[in-house]
Amino acid sequence: MGDKANAHPGAAGRATAADHPASVRNVVLVGHSGSGKTTLVEALALTAGAVNRAGRVEDGGTVSDYDEIEHRQQRSVQLSLVPVGWDGYKINILDTPGYADFVGELRAGLRAADAALFVVSASDGVDGSTRMVWEECAAVGMPRAIVITHLESARSDFDEMTRTCAEAFGADDPDAVLPLYLPLHGPQGPDGHAPVTGLIGLLSQRLFDYSSGERKESEPGPEQLPLIEEARNRLIEGIIAESEDETLMDRYLGGEELDFKTLVQDLERAVARGIFFPVLAAAPAAEGAKQGLGTVELLELITGGFPTPLERQAPTVTTPDGKARQVKACDPDGPLVAEVVKTASDPYVGRVSMVRVFSGTLRPDETVHVSGHGLADRGHEDHDVDERIGALSAPFGKQQRALTHAIAGDLACVAKLNRAETGDTLSSKDDPLLMEPWEMPDPLLPLAIQAHSKADEDKLSQGLGRLVAEDPTMRLEQNQDTHQVVLWCLGEAHADVALERLRSRYGVQVDVVPHKVSLRETFADRSAGRGRHVKQSGGHGQYAICAIEVEPLPGGSGIEFVDKVVGGAVPRQFIPSVEKGVRAQAARGVAAGYALIDIRITLLDGKAHSVDSSDAAFQTAGALALREAAVDARIHLLEPVAEVTVLVGDEYVGAVMSDLSGRRGRVVGTEQAGGNRTLVRAEVPEIEIGRYGVDLRSLSHGTARFNRTYARHEPMPAQLAEKIREQAQGNP
Q: For the chain, how many helices (H) and strands (E)?
């Protein structure tokens, strides 16, 4: 792998179709925004010969950041795939956004990959969100490695960052997070900083000099070997500790010089099993250089140490009706099972679906079964349809290179699957199957929008539908109570990208309006009302009188209607009319225009006319009676209250609880969640947590997560209720 003494680049360049899963490597780059992931992809592509010149994020010239939004914001906002060839292997490099608002793209990348490369900036260190993703990978046993970037920074210190990574990622076993190389420094510059010009392999004890723009290998000088002795011994002991050969440690402690090849093989096995996590260094290529610092070592690590798709256990597979189905992992000759990990719209091609093939072989122009289940709550209806796929291609940034097939373990793009959405399963039309979906974060930031003009209104529904189909971390809500169209997002940056795509991609201009919560009204005490609807001026008139009593009920009771009329004061055929009228008025509200709930309405008495009484007249009388009852009653405005759970580091618990209290929240309990984190449970009015996801991220430096579920409606404070009543009545 990355420390082979006689490694050579071999065949390199842009990868085409793979012929066997063993020749494929799928690796996802993970790290916070600005850590250098996209720049590293450029450096790897240059070293592999896939590009002739590395682009720069600042210039908008990188392969993986090809969207206009990414050019303007100078950061990744979507998952992108850059396949390269190295030493006979096809490496599918998945570049992911580092900003927390786009964690859905990161989760999709983790699903598509078999190993993760964590990119850590030497000048910024390890942030909380990166630690959380590391824990997610650890929970599923995904192999990982760490690459330290920004070593050109004057404040960078490779040894210090290695210790930081061991503390952050190797809490249970710090000796499982160790460097494979140490950096070599050139002469100091005017600022006193000595740039990194090469690497020295701890196992091979060879020098790899990149100062000329291309890696050159040589023997170290006698003065250099003592400098690496301590780090080399610790690395060897770390490899032996994870080795399956229990005799190695005894042989090593007995003074035996272990074979270099044996150590490399044990290292590769430990990395592939996800129990040892090597640390490497990398830097972009200088202008005119052919290889960036450490890129050859990284490519060798990926091909030699990271697992093949054959070593990954496939996700759970069932039939669309839920029956378990056993599918052999990564068999190109098995039944077709592929998953859509990303959906995009191309102005010339239409919908393009990036898929990971888990079983079977995908070919162009064949008919497949498209199945999507389990996301109905996010606006994705369950669907099972057969579709004919169009062209099959390997993406390289915005370019698409035609493929003849995509075998199990490979990634490819499929054109013209008009019904397929992110998370859907593709299978044979004669043997429909469904994969268990990956966990997607809940969008918790509401964005209420309305069409800017009539022309936009006609296109809004289709544009929103396409937007949500591409991104399952968005949820579209048509709120029947507030009559608002609400797009639920993961954060402000996520919302900004959604609005920009609506405008630029789908030609829809929208206005953002204040988000409304679904308030309710109820009677605070017992009250009576009399509704009189009498219009008699000759000819057929209208006559209906009814007397009702209204009383409050416990929360969650809804509206009860009770008939206690005696003596036929209200004819039996008109009693349903009264009920219909009071229910219609209850839906319109009696104080501020919000629906009434949790009351019992009892019809006590009334009068009718043999000719002029009618269904419509008694409906009107019932509504008038309810409105009159509200005049002399105390009407409570009810606001929705959410049950909120916040998972936060222990050091931020006090700040989180104080913030919740400031939002009129009631903390109902806390419990230890492990890993120096606490789960805080609280009940908070929904009107106070519209932007809570954004504020919590700032409060906890991106380390906290929260969930919310509706609990109940309860009375608002009097001063807030009065303000809303005044707004509803049009008062200043």
A: 16, 37
